[in-house]
Design a protein that fits this description.
Helices cover 36% and strands 13% of the residues. It is an alpha/beta fold and 134 residues long. It has 5 helices and 4 strands, in the order βαββαααβα.
């Protein structure tokens, strides 16, 4: 039902989830919603808004840490903003530990939403990351 496709509650243990991090506009929420629709227990970690460099592992190491990258021109286009390089540089800095420790890094700049989903699902399948209840 629709309830199973909601983003996971903040209290959920991260070690049972795929956690998606990245700058604003990289496609985190869109990817998580699609992964949930396929049965993966995915969640967004809004690391770019936090000053806690290890926020992505706050409640345990996730099954998979997925890092979505996007460049300044693409972020500005996707979000309809006119940010400076400094705005994104601050987000990249906050995400640096997550980027270093990620299991899967994906540059979303040249990709469509279906391509991002496909690449991520291929990674999860190749690394035997389980869907919910399997």
């Amino acid at each position: 039902g629709a309830g199973s496709r909601r983003l996971m509650p903040a209290s959920a243990a991260l070690d049972e989830h795929e956690v998606v991090v990245g700058v604003c506009g990289a496609g985190k929420t869109t990817l998580v919603r699609r992964l949930l629709g396929l049965g993966y227990p995915a969640r967004v970690c809004a690391q770019e808004h936090s000053h806690v460099p290890s926020l992505f592992r706050r409640r345990g190491r996730p099954q998979a840490l997925i890092y979505l990258h996007a460049s300044l021109p693409v972020v500005c286009r996707r979000l309809g903003v006119n940010w400076t390089e400094q705005v994104l540089a601050e987000q990249w800095q906050r995400l640096s530990l997550a980027r270093e420790e990620c299991d899967f890094f994906l540059d979303t700049d040249p990709l469509t939403i279906p391509q991002v989903l496909h690449a991520t699902e291929c990674y999860l399948q190749a690394h035997a990351v389980c869907k919910r209840g399997l």
